[in-house]
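Dear support,

Our group has been running a series of protein-ligand predictions, and this particular one with iron/sulfur cluster is the one our PI (initials K.S.) wants archived with full inputs and outputs. We had some confusion internally about which version of the output was final, so please treat the block below as the authoritative record. The input we submitted was:
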Amino acid sequence: MTEEIINFEDKRGDEYLPFGIYIHIPFCKKRCNYCDFTSVADDNSNFIENYLQVLSKEISASLSAVNSYFPKTIYIGGGTPSVLSEKQIVFLFENLYKHFSKQNCGGNIEITFEMNPESITLSKLKILKIYGVNRLSFGLQSFDDSILRYLGRIHTVNDFSKSYDLARNLGFDNINIDLIFGIPEQTLDDWKETLTKTLNLNPEHISVYGLTIENGTKFHSDGISVNDDLSADMYKFAIDFLKENGYHHYEISNFSKNGFECLHNINYWENRQYFGFGLGATSYIKGKRIKNTENIKEYLGEKFHLEFEQLDEDKKISEDLMLGLRLTKGFEISEVVRKKYSQNISNLKKLDLLIEQDNILKLSNKGIMYANHVFREFL
Ligand code: SF4
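Confirmed final output from the archive:
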C-alpha cells in the first residue's frame, strides 16, 4: 500500500487550491437493502468518537500544510452525518474551523449537511446553524411508508415531515430532498404521488436517483431486479413534471430553483480540485486522485491513503467530457477533445444522443435518458 501525505509545498495562488472539502461520516443505524456506499452499520458512541479523532488528524495533516486556504464549499456526507450526537457535531466543526475562519471565506460559503429523518433533533439543527450550515440534504427516498420499509429505511414519512418542519421553522432556506424511483414495489402512480407531495413542501433542490442493484447489497443477494422500461418512464415523468413546476434540471439527477444549484457537486462535475476526508473519501489535487482506504480498521489505524492515480492527459480529457456532459448546460469542446473523439461525437450526434451548438456539446433529451450509453463512448 502506498502512503503519502497530500503535499502543498509548491504553494501557488488560491485558485489552484481545492474549491471544496468533503467530509465522510460513514455511520448508519442500519444498512439499507440497496446500499453499496462506504458505510458502517454501527452508531456506538465510542466507535464514532475514535473515528472523529482520527478524522481530525487527517484533516490537520492536509490543511495545516495550506497557507490561507478558504474553501468555497464544505459538504458533510455519509453514511448518515445526523447520527452524530450534538457533542460530536461540535467536535467535528471545532476541529475543522481550527484551520480557517469561516468568516474569511467571503461570507457565502456553501455548507451542506446530510441528514436522515430518524436521527434529526431540534438541538442538532440549532448546533448546525451556529456552525454556519446553510444547506441541508434530507434522505427521504419515498413518500410511502411501505416502500420505505421495502428499501430497508428506518424512518417513516411522519419522521421526515416532523424533521423537515423543524428545519424550516429554524430558518433553513436551502433544503434538498433525495428521492428514489424504479423500485420494484413502486408504480408510476406511486412515483407521481411522491413527487407531488415533495413539491407541496417547496424544497429548493430535489435529487432523483434510479434504483440500481449493486453487488454486495441485500437486494442483489435476494435476486431483486429493476424494470428498466418502467424506471425510464418514471425518470421521464420526473424531468417533465419538475421542469413544469419551476425546477431547473441542471444535472442528470439534480433539479433546483434558480440560484440553488449545489455548488459543491458542480465542482465535481466540472472536474476541479477538492479535498475528501474520512473513510473511503477521494481527493483530487494537482491532477492526482487520492483515494482513502474503505477499511475502517485501517482508517482507525491512521493508514489513510490507499491509492494514488496521476491522471494522464488522455484520462483527464475523458473524465472532463464524461463529467461535463452530466451538466445540462453542456461542455465546451476544445480542439484536443474534438480531435480525439471526433468519430464518437459524430456517431452520437447521428443517433440524436448529443447536440452541438456554438462549440458546446450537450446530451439531447434522448441522450439524457441513455446517458450511460453515451459515456461508454468516451471511456
Ligand atoms: S442511510 Fe444511506 S448510506 Fe446509510 S445504509 Fe442507507 S443508503 Fe446507505
